[in-house]
Write a structure and sequence with these properties.
Belongs to the thiolase-like superfamily. Beta-ketoacyl-ACP synthases family. GO terms for molecular function: 3-oxoacyl-[acyl-carrier-protein] synthase activity. The chain starts with a strand and ends with a strand. The protein is α/β, with parallel strands linked by helices. About 55% of the residues are buried. Helix 11 links the parallel strand 9 and strand 10. It has 13 helices and 14 strands.
Length: about 400
Protein backbone atom coordinates (compact mmCIF):
# COMPACT_ATOMS: atom_id res chain seq x y z
CA UNK A 1 0.00 0.00 0.00
CA UNK A 2 1.32 3.42 -0.98
CA UNK A 3 1.72 6.11 1.67
CA UNK A 4 -0.58 9.10 1.13
CA UNK A 5 0.18 12.67 2.18
CA UNK A 6 -1.63 16.00 2.01
CA UNK A 7 0.24 18.75 0.15
CA UNK A 8 -2.49 21.26 -0.66
CA UNK A 9 -5.40 22.86 1.20
CA UNK A 10 -8.14 25.21 0.07
CA UNK A 11 -11.36 26.41 1.67
CA UNK A 12 -14.30 28.79 1.52
CA UNK A 13 -15.95 29.08 4.93
CA UNK A 14 -17.87 31.39 7.26
CA UNK A 15 -14.50 32.11 8.95
CA UNK A 16 -12.86 33.42 5.79
CA UNK A 17 -12.23 32.74 2.14
CA UNK A 18 -8.65 31.51 2.21
CA UNK A 19 -6.54 29.25 4.38
CA UNK A 20 -4.77 32.05 6.28
CA UNK A 21 -7.99 33.88 7.20
CA UNK A 22 -9.71 30.69 8.26
CA UNK A 23 -6.91 29.47 10.50
CA UNK A 24 -6.39 32.90 12.06
CA UNK A 25 -10.10 33.08 12.91
CA UNK A 26 -10.13 29.56 14.34
CA UNK A 27 -7.14 29.92 16.66
CA UNK A 28 -8.42 33.27 17.88
CA UNK A 29 -11.87 31.85 18.62
CA UNK A 30 -13.72 34.14 16.22
CA UNK A 31 -17.17 32.93 15.25
CA UNK A 32 -18.44 32.91 11.67
CA UNK A 33 -22.03 32.74 12.89
CA UNK A 34 -24.28 35.76 12.40
CA UNK A 35 -27.88 36.63 11.67
CA UNK A 36 -29.47 34.68 8.83
CA UNK A 37 -29.48 36.95 5.76
CA UNK A 38 -29.79 34.58 2.76
CA UNK A 39 -33.57 34.98 2.85
CA UNK A 40 -36.29 36.55 4.99
CA UNK A 41 -36.36 34.36 8.10
CA UNK A 42 -39.12 36.29 9.89
CA UNK A 43 -41.41 33.26 10.03
CA UNK A 44 -38.65 30.73 10.77
CA UNK A 45 -37.70 29.55 14.25
CA UNK A 46 -34.00 29.74 13.30
CA UNK A 47 -32.59 33.26 13.13
CA UNK A 48 -28.85 32.55 12.86
CA UNK A 49 -26.57 30.95 10.28
CA UNK A 50 -22.89 30.65 9.43
CA UNK A 51 -22.82 32.22 5.97
CA UNK A 52 -19.90 32.69 3.61
CA UNK A 53 -19.21 36.43 3.39
CA UNK A 54 -17.52 38.76 0.89
CA UNK A 55 -16.53 35.92 -1.42
CA UNK A 56 -15.34 37.16 -4.83
CA UNK A 57 -16.21 34.39 -7.27
CA UNK A 58 -14.61 36.27 -10.18
CA UNK A 59 -11.21 35.15 -8.90
CA UNK A 60 -12.08 31.57 -9.82
CA UNK A 61 -14.44 31.53 -12.80
CA UNK A 62 -16.01 33.59 -15.55
CA UNK A 63 -19.57 34.88 -15.37
CA UNK A 64 -20.90 32.42 -17.95
CA UNK A 65 -19.33 29.54 -16.00
CA UNK A 66 -20.77 30.49 -12.62
CA UNK A 67 -24.28 30.78 -14.10
CA UNK A 68 -24.15 27.06 -14.87
CA UNK A 69 -23.32 26.09 -11.29
CA UNK A 70 -25.26 26.00 -8.05
CA UNK A 71 -23.62 27.83 -5.17
CA UNK A 72 -22.35 24.55 -3.65
CA UNK A 73 -20.54 23.72 -6.90
CA UNK A 74 -19.05 27.22 -7.09
CA UNK A 75 -17.63 26.77 -3.60
CA UNK A 76 -16.25 23.34 -4.54
CA UNK A 77 -14.48 24.61 -7.65
CA UNK A 78 -12.98 27.60 -5.82
CA UNK A 79 -11.68 25.48 -2.93
CA UNK A 80 -10.20 22.92 -5.35
CA UNK A 81 -8.40 25.62 -7.34
CA UNK A 82 -6.95 26.92 -4.05
CA UNK A 83 -5.80 23.45 -2.96
CA UNK A 84 -4.03 22.70 -6.25
CA UNK A 85 -2.36 26.10 -6.20
CA UNK A 86 -1.40 25.66 -2.55
CA UNK A 87 0.22 22.33 -3.46
CA UNK A 88 2.15 24.02 -6.28
CA UNK A 89 0.91 21.37 -8.71
CA UNK A 90 0.64 21.95 -12.44
CA UNK A 91 -1.53 19.28 -14.05
CA UNK A 92 0.17 18.07 -17.20
CA UNK A 93 3.62 18.86 -15.79
CA UNK A 94 3.76 17.45 -12.25
CA UNK A 95 1.13 14.79 -12.92
CA UNK A 96 -0.51 13.41 -16.06
CA UNK A 97 -4.20 14.42 -16.33
CA UNK A 98 -5.26 10.76 -16.29
CA UNK A 99 -3.33 10.17 -13.04
CA UNK A 100 -5.12 12.81 -10.97
CA UNK A 101 -8.66 12.19 -9.80
CA UNK A 102 -11.45 13.95 -7.94
CA UNK A 103 -13.83 12.92 -5.16
CA UNK A 104 -16.14 15.46 -3.54
CA UNK A 105 -18.92 14.96 -1.04
CA UNK A 106 -22.13 16.83 -0.37
CA UNK A 107 -25.09 16.10 1.86
CA UNK A 108 -27.78 17.97 -0.04
CA UNK A 109 -26.42 19.20 -3.36
CA UNK A 110 -27.96 22.00 -5.40
CA UNK A 111 -30.93 22.77 -3.21
CA UNK A 112 -30.87 26.50 -3.98
CA UNK A 113 -31.16 25.76 -7.71
CA UNK A 114 -33.86 23.18 -7.00
CA UNK A 115 -36.00 25.74 -5.17
CA UNK A 116 -35.50 28.37 -7.88
CA UNK A 117 -36.31 25.87 -10.63
CA UNK A 118 -39.49 24.76 -8.88
CA UNK A 119 -40.67 28.36 -8.57
CA UNK A 120 -39.94 28.93 -12.26
CA UNK A 121 -41.92 25.80 -13.13
CA UNK A 122 -44.92 26.88 -11.05
CA UNK A 123 -44.98 30.39 -12.46
CA UNK A 124 -44.26 29.70 -16.13
CA UNK A 125 -44.31 25.99 -16.90
CA UNK A 126 -41.36 23.94 -18.06
CA UNK A 127 -40.67 26.50 -20.79
CA UNK A 128 -39.64 28.86 -18.00
CA UNK A 129 -36.93 26.50 -16.71
CA UNK A 130 -33.25 27.32 -17.13
CA UNK A 131 -31.62 24.87 -19.61
CA UNK A 132 -29.06 23.88 -16.95
CA UNK A 133 -31.64 23.29 -14.21
CA UNK A 134 -30.88 19.58 -13.99
CA UNK A 135 -27.11 19.86 -13.95
CA UNK A 136 -27.17 22.61 -11.33
CA UNK A 137 -29.14 20.43 -8.92
CA UNK A 138 -27.46 17.03 -9.05
CA UNK A 139 -24.89 16.22 -6.40
CA UNK A 140 -22.13 14.91 -8.67
CA UNK A 141 -21.62 18.35 -10.21
CA UNK A 142 -19.05 19.30 -7.57
CA UNK A 143 -16.76 16.43 -8.61
CA UNK A 144 -17.62 16.93 -12.27
CA UNK A 145 -16.99 20.68 -12.43
CA UNK A 146 -13.78 20.42 -10.41
CA UNK A 147 -12.50 17.86 -12.91
CA UNK A 148 -13.59 19.94 -15.91
CA UNK A 149 -12.12 23.17 -14.52
CA UNK A 150 -8.76 21.65 -13.61
CA UNK A 151 -8.46 19.00 -16.31
CA UNK A 152 -8.35 16.05 -13.92
CA UNK A 153 -9.16 13.02 -16.10
CA UNK A 154 -8.52 10.20 -13.62
CA UNK A 155 -10.61 8.42 -11.00
CA UNK A 156 -13.77 10.43 -10.26
CA UNK A 157 -16.46 9.90 -7.67
CA UNK A 158 -19.13 11.68 -5.65
CA UNK A 159 -20.03 10.80 -2.05
CA UNK A 160 -23.47 11.56 -0.59
CA UNK A 161 -23.53 10.33 3.01
CA UNK A 162 -25.18 13.20 4.85
CA UNK A 163 -22.79 14.97 7.23
CA UNK A 164 -20.12 12.28 6.83
CA UNK A 165 -19.90 12.92 3.07
CA UNK A 166 -16.61 14.78 2.78
CA UNK A 167 -14.81 12.65 5.35
CA UNK A 168 -15.72 9.64 3.26
CA UNK A 169 -14.66 11.50 0.11
CA UNK A 170 -11.23 12.03 1.65
CA UNK A 171 -11.13 8.37 2.64
CA UNK A 172 -12.18 7.32 -0.85
CA UNK A 173 -9.38 9.39 -2.38
CA UNK A 174 -6.93 7.96 0.13
CA UNK A 175 -7.89 4.42 -0.83
CA UNK A 176 -7.70 5.20 -4.56
CA UNK A 177 -4.07 6.33 -4.19
CA UNK A 178 -3.21 3.41 -1.90
CA UNK A 179 -4.53 0.98 -4.50
CA UNK A 180 -2.62 2.67 -7.29
CA UNK A 181 -5.75 3.92 -9.09
CA UNK A 182 -4.42 7.49 -8.94
CA UNK A 183 -1.19 9.32 -8.19
CA UNK A 184 -2.96 12.43 -6.91
CA UNK A 185 -6.52 13.14 -5.78
CA UNK A 186 -8.43 16.38 -5.26
CA UNK A 187 -10.87 15.57 -2.45
CA UNK A 188 -13.25 17.42 -0.17
CA UNK A 189 -16.81 18.55 0.22
CA UNK A 190 -19.16 21.44 -0.46
CA UNK A 191 -22.54 22.64 0.78
CA UNK A 192 -24.84 25.62 0.29
CA UNK A 193 -28.10 24.70 1.96
CA UNK A 194 -28.95 27.95 3.76
CA UNK A 195 -32.22 28.24 1.85
CA UNK A 196 -35.88 28.33 2.91
CA UNK A 197 -36.27 24.59 2.34
CA UNK A 198 -32.87 23.66 3.80
CA UNK A 199 -33.33 25.67 7.00
CA UNK A 200 -37.07 25.09 7.21
CA UNK A 201 -36.66 21.32 7.17
CA UNK A 202 -34.28 21.45 10.13
CA UNK A 203 -36.68 23.80 11.93
CA UNK A 204 -39.49 21.28 11.41
CA UNK A 205 -37.25 18.50 12.70
CA UNK A 206 -36.37 20.48 15.82
CA UNK A 207 -32.65 19.93 15.30
CA UNK A 208 -31.68 23.57 14.71
CA UNK A 209 -30.93 26.21 17.32
CA UNK A 210 -33.70 28.72 17.96
CA UNK A 211 -31.42 30.94 20.02
CA UNK A 212 -31.59 34.34 18.27
CA UNK A 213 -28.17 35.45 19.57
CA UNK A 214 -25.35 34.63 17.11
CA UNK A 215 -22.84 34.78 19.95
CA UNK A 216 -24.41 31.90 21.84
CA UNK A 217 -26.54 29.94 19.36
CA UNK A 218 -23.97 27.21 18.70
CA UNK A 219 -22.41 25.83 21.89
CA UNK A 220 -21.25 22.22 21.61
CA UNK A 221 -21.02 20.27 24.89
CA UNK A 222 -22.64 23.13 26.81
CA UNK A 223 -25.60 22.34 29.06
CA UNK A 224 -27.60 25.11 27.37
CA UNK A 225 -27.08 23.98 23.77
CA UNK A 226 -30.30 23.72 21.81
CA UNK A 227 -29.31 22.55 18.34
CA UNK A 228 -27.03 23.05 15.38
CA UNK A 229 -26.51 26.22 13.39
CA UNK A 230 -26.52 25.80 9.62
CA UNK A 231 -23.23 26.57 7.88
CA UNK A 232 -22.02 26.55 4.29
CA UNK A 233 -18.86 26.52 2.21
CA UNK A 234 -16.32 24.03 0.92
CA UNK A 235 -12.98 22.46 1.76
CA UNK A 236 -10.51 20.72 -0.54
CA UNK A 237 -7.32 18.73 -0.02
CA UNK A 238 -4.69 17.68 -2.54
CA UNK A 239 -3.58 14.12 -1.78
CA UNK A 240 -0.61 12.41 -3.39
CA UNK A 241 1.78 9.57 -2.84
CA UNK A 242 4.64 10.25 -0.47
CA UNK A 243 7.06 9.35 -3.28
CA UNK A 244 5.51 11.97 -5.54
CA UNK A 245 5.64 14.62 -2.80
CA UNK A 246 9.29 13.90 -2.07
CA UNK A 247 10.15 13.94 -5.76
CA UNK A 248 8.49 17.36 -6.12
CA UNK A 249 10.03 18.62 -2.88
CA UNK A 250 6.47 19.45 -1.84
CA UNK A 251 5.42 21.07 1.42
CA UNK A 252 3.67 18.26 3.33
CA UNK A 253 0.93 19.11 5.84
CA UNK A 254 0.62 15.58 7.11
CA UNK A 255 0.00 11.96 6.22
CA UNK A 256 -3.31 10.10 6.22
CA UNK A 257 -2.64 6.89 8.09
CA UNK A 258 -6.10 5.68 9.06
CA UNK A 259 -9.63 5.68 7.68
CA UNK A 260 -12.79 3.75 8.41
CA UNK A 261 -16.48 3.99 7.67
CA UNK A 262 -19.48 2.03 8.91
CA UNK A 263 -23.18 2.20 9.68
CA UNK A 264 -25.20 2.18 12.89
CA UNK A 265 -28.01 0.37 11.01
CA UNK A 266 -30.25 1.75 13.75
CA UNK A 267 -32.24 4.91 12.96
CA UNK A 268 -32.44 7.63 10.30
CA UNK A 269 -31.60 10.48 12.67
CA UNK A 270 -30.73 9.13 16.14
CA UNK A 271 -27.32 7.58 16.86
CA UNK A 272 -27.12 4.00 18.11
CA UNK A 273 -27.39 3.67 21.91
CA UNK A 274 -24.07 4.21 23.64
CA UNK A 275 -22.45 5.33 20.40
CA UNK A 276 -21.89 1.74 19.26
CA UNK A 277 -21.21 2.67 15.62
CA UNK A 278 -18.97 5.59 16.53
CA UNK A 279 -16.91 3.42 18.88
CA UNK A 280 -16.44 0.79 16.19
CA UNK A 281 -15.48 3.23 13.44
CA UNK A 282 -12.79 4.81 15.65
CA UNK A 283 -11.51 1.34 16.52
CA UNK A 284 -11.33 0.44 12.83
CA UNK A 285 -9.49 3.66 11.97
CA UNK A 286 -6.94 2.99 14.72
CA UNK A 287 -6.49 -0.55 13.40
CA UNK A 288 -6.02 0.75 9.85
CA UNK A 289 -3.38 3.16 11.16
CA UNK A 290 -1.69 0.46 13.28
CA UNK A 291 -1.91 2.85 16.25
CA UNK A 292 -2.44 2.33 19.95
CA UNK A 293 -5.18 4.42 21.56
CA UNK A 294 -2.58 6.24 23.64
CA UNK A 295 -0.99 7.65 20.47
CA UNK A 296 -3.90 9.99 19.66
CA UNK A 297 -2.89 13.53 20.66
CA UNK A 298 -6.08 15.40 19.74
CA UNK A 299 -9.62 14.64 18.59
CA UNK A 300 -11.52 16.99 16.29
CA UNK A 301 -15.04 16.02 17.31
CA UNK A 302 -18.16 15.93 15.19
CA UNK A 303 -19.64 18.08 17.99
CA UNK A 304 -22.85 19.42 16.45
CA UNK A 305 -24.28 21.24 19.51
CA UNK A 306 -27.33 18.96 19.51
CA UNK A 307 -28.40 17.20 22.71
CA UNK A 308 -28.06 13.67 21.35
CA UNK A 309 -24.86 13.95 19.33
CA UNK A 310 -22.68 15.60 21.97
CA UNK A 311 -23.65 13.13 24.69
CA UNK A 312 -23.29 10.14 22.38
CA UNK A 313 -19.91 11.20 21.01
CA UNK A 314 -18.61 11.87 24.51
CA UNK A 315 -19.80 8.45 25.67
CA UNK A 316 -18.20 6.77 22.66
CA UNK A 317 -14.83 8.44 23.26
CA UNK A 318 -14.92 7.48 26.95
CA UNK A 319 -15.87 3.89 26.14
CA UNK A 320 -13.05 3.48 23.61
CA UNK A 321 -10.26 5.42 25.28
CA UNK A 322 -11.10 4.61 28.89
CA UNK A 323 -9.45 6.74 31.56
CA UNK A 324 -7.14 8.25 28.95
CA UNK A 325 -10.17 9.97 27.37
CA UNK A 326 -9.90 12.60 30.10
CA UNK A 327 -6.37 13.45 29.00
CA UNK A 328 -7.02 13.90 25.26
CA UNK A 329 -7.85 17.45 24.17
CA UNK A 330 -11.02 17.52 22.08
CA UNK A 331 -12.66 20.42 20.29
CA UNK A 332 -15.62 21.13 18.07
CA UNK A 333 -14.73 23.70 15.44
CA UNK A 334 -18.42 23.75 14.49
CA UNK A 335 -18.75 26.18 17.39
CA UNK A 336 -17.17 28.69 14.97
CA UNK A 337 -18.08 27.43 11.48
CA UNK A 338 -21.57 26.18 12.22
CA UNK A 339 -22.50 22.81 10.77
CA UNK A 340 -21.32 22.84 7.17
CA UNK A 341 -23.13 19.56 6.50
CA UNK A 342 -21.47 17.72 3.62
CA UNK A 343 -18.46 20.05 3.78
CA UNK A 344 -17.93 19.64 7.54
CA UNK A 345 -15.56 16.69 7.41
CA UNK A 346 -13.29 18.38 4.87
CA UNK A 347 -13.03 21.61 6.86
CA UNK A 348 -12.37 19.65 10.05
CA UNK A 349 -9.67 17.64 8.27
CA UNK A 350 -8.05 20.95 7.32
CA UNK A 351 -8.20 22.11 10.95
CA UNK A 352 -6.68 18.79 12.02
CA UNK A 353 -3.75 19.20 9.63
CA UNK A 354 -3.21 22.84 10.58
CA UNK A 355 -3.16 21.80 14.23
CA UNK A 356 -0.35 19.34 13.47
CA UNK A 357 1.55 21.97 11.52
CA UNK A 358 1.22 24.83 13.98
CA UNK A 359 1.05 23.11 17.35
CA UNK A 360 -2.13 24.98 18.28
CA UNK A 361 -5.50 23.34 19.02
CA UNK A 362 -8.55 25.43 18.03
CA UNK A 363 -11.01 25.94 20.88
CA UNK A 364 -14.63 25.04 21.41
CA UNK A 365 -16.07 28.52 21.86
CA UNK A 366 -19.23 29.45 23.80
CA UNK A 367 -18.57 26.60 26.24
CA UNK A 368 -19.52 28.29 29.49
CA UNK A 369 -21.64 25.78 31.41
CA UNK A 370 -20.36 22.31 30.57
CA UNK A 371 -22.95 19.54 30.42
CA UNK A 372 -22.23 17.08 33.29
CA UNK A 373 -22.66 14.24 30.80
CA UNK A 374 -20.06 15.88 28.55
CA UNK A 375 -17.20 15.90 31.01
CA UNK A 376 -14.07 15.66 28.84
CA UNK A 377 -11.46 18.29 27.95
CA UNK A 378 -13.06 20.25 25.10
CA UNK A 379 -10.44 23.06 25.00
CA UNK A 380 -13.01 25.65 26.10
CA UNK A 381 -12.99 29.13 24.54
CA UNK A 382 -9.22 29.65 24.19
CA UNK A 383 -6.85 27.90 21.77
CA UNK A 384 -4.17 25.74 23.33
CA UNK A 385 -0.54 25.34 22.35
CA UNK A 386 0.42 21.69 22.20
CA UNK A 387 2.80 19.55 20.20
CA UNK A 388 0.39 17.41 18.20
CA UNK A 389 1.62 14.52 16.07
CA UNK A 390 -1.54 12.46 15.56
CA UNK A 391 -5.16 13.61 15.15
CA UNK A 392 -8.42 11.68 14.99
CA UNK A 393 -11.26 13.44 13.17
CA UNK A 394 -14.83 12.14 13.54
CA UNK A 395 -17.77 12.63 11.19
CA UNK A 396 -21.27 11.28 11.74
CA UNK A 397 -24.30 11.58 9.48
CA UNK A 398 -28.05 11.06 9.35
CA UNK A 399 -28.88 7.51 8.37
CA UNK A 400 -26.31 6.18 10.82
CA UNK A 401 -23.23 6.89 8.70
CA UNK A 402 -19.96 7.12 10.65
CA UNK A 403 -16.45 7.84 9.46
CA UNK A 404 -13.10 8.50 11.08
CA UNK A 405 -9.84 9.82 9.67
CA UNK A 406 -6.42 9.79 11.33
CA UNK A 407 -3.68 12.23 10.33
CA UNK A 408 -0.05 12.16 11.42
CA UNK A 409 2.93 14.47 11.11
CA UNK A 410 5.55 13.34 8.59
Amino acid sequence: MKRVVVTGLGAVTPLGNNLEEIWDSAVNGRSGIGYLTRFDATNFSAKTAAEVKDFDLSNYMKVNERHRMDRFTQYAVASAIMAVKNANVTIGKDVLPENIGVCFGTAIGGIESFEESYQNLITGGYQNLYPFSTTMVISNMASSQVAITLGAKGYNNCVVLSCASSSNAIGDGYRAIQRGDAEMMIVGGAEASITPLGVGAFCAMGAISTNPDPESACRPFDANRDGLVMGEGAGALLLETLDSAIKRNADIYGEIIGYATNSDAYHITSPAPGGEGSIKVMELALKDASLRKEEIDYINAHGTSTKNNDKMETAAIKKLFGENAYHIPISSTKSMTGHMMGAAGAIEAIFSLMTIRNGVIPPTIHLENQDPECDLDYVPNIARKKDVKTVLSNALGFGGHNSALIFRAV
